[in-house]
Amino acid sequence: MSILEIIGGLLIVIGSIFLFLGALGIYRMPDVFNRLQAGTKASTLGAMATILGVGLLAPGWIFKVLIIILFIAYSNPISSHALARAMHKRKGYMYFKDEDIDAYSEIEEKDNSEK
Amino acid sequence: MDYIIYFSLTVMTLALILAAVRFYKGPSAGDRTLALDTMTTIGVSSIVLLAYLFDRYIYLDVALVYGVLGFIGVIVIARYLEKAL
Amino acid sequence: MKSDYLKKLSFGTKLSRFFMNWIFLIMVWIGFTNTFDMQEIIVGVLLTALISFLGIRLFTCCDLSLLHPVRLYNIAKFIIVFLIALIKSNFDVARRVLSPSLPINPGIVKFKTKLKTNFSKMVLANSITLTPGTLTIDVVDDTFYVHWIDTLTTNPEESYKEIAEQFEEILLKIF
Questions:
Q1: Which of C10, C32, C65 is the last residue before a domain boundary?
Q2: What is the pLDDT of residue B82?
Q3: Weakest mean pLDDT among A80-84, A104-108, B54-58
Q4: Residue A95 domain boundaries
Q5: B40 CB near a chain A CB, below 8 Å?
Q6: Which residue of A has its CA nearest to B1?
Q7: Separation of alpha carbons B44 and B13, rounded Å
Q8: CA C110/CA C162 separation, integer angstroms
C-alpha cells in the first residue's frame, strides 16, 4: 500500500462519518434553520473529503474529481441559502432559546407595507 | 482497501436512512426539501465510491449530472415555496 | 447588475474579459474530458473561444487583472483560510450534534459589508455559510442577514468582527 492509498482511505472514512453526522444533525435539530446549518456544512465537507479520497486512490481521475468537488462546494451553500430565505418568507417555525433575535423580519415588514 | 469502501458505504446508507426519516416526518415542505438535498449529496458521494469499486470511469459523469439536477431541483422548489416562480 | 450589463465597454475590457473567460473555460474543459489528447484539446480550445466570445457581457465577474501575482497569492491565502474554517465548522457541528443537550442559542443578526461587486458578495456569502455556526439568509444591497446558531451579540459591528472580518479583508485585496 502506497502513501496515497492510505491518505485516500482515511479521507473516505472521515468523509463518510461527517456525512453521517450531517444526517444526524438533520434528524435531531429543532427547526429548519438549524437543520440547514448542520446539514449544509457537514454534508459539504463529507462529500468533498470522500470524493477527494477516491481521486487519490485513482490518480488518473483527478481532474474530473476536482470538477465535482468544485461544483459541490459552489452549489451546496447556494441551495441552502435559497431554502432558508424561502422558509423565512413563509413564516416557518423558528426555535429560540431565551429571546427572539430576528433582524430579518424588518425586511419583510418593509415588503408588506410596499404592497 | 475494498473493506474500507464497504464500511463507508454502510455508514452512508445509515445516513441516507436518517435523512429519509426526516423526509418522511418533516413538519414543513422546507424540511423535506432539505432532506432531499442531503440525500442527493450522499448519493453523489456513494456513486463516486461505487465508480472506484467497480472501476467504471463513466459513473463519474453520472454523479456529476445527478449533482447538477439535484441542485437545480432544490433551487426550483425553493423559488416555488417563496412564491416567486 | 443591470447597469453593468447595459454599460458600454471599452475594447481593452472586452479583450481582457474574453481571455480570462477563455483560460477558465479551458481549465473546466480539461476537467470534464480528463485527458490531454490532442484532438480533445483542439476541439475544446475552439469551443471555449466561441463561448467566451458570446459570454463577454454575461460572465462579468473578473478580467485578466485577476492573474496579477499579488492577487494570486491572496486567492491561495483565501482558499487556505476557507478550508481551515470549513474543517473547524465541521467539528463544531459534530460537537453540537453529538452532545445530548443540543447546546444552541439561535438568532438572526445583520451587519454591513464593504465589498462592492456582486460576485465578491456572493463569494463572501458562500464562505459565511460554510464557516462555524453561521448561515447567510439574504443579502440586501450591502446588508448581510445571517442566522447564527450561537448568538453572542446583536450589535452589527461586533457580529461583523466575529463572522466576516477574516474573509473580507482578503477579499478586498482580490476584487
A1: C65
A2: 83
A3: A104-108
A4: 3-114
A5: no
A6: A9
A7: 13
A8: 12
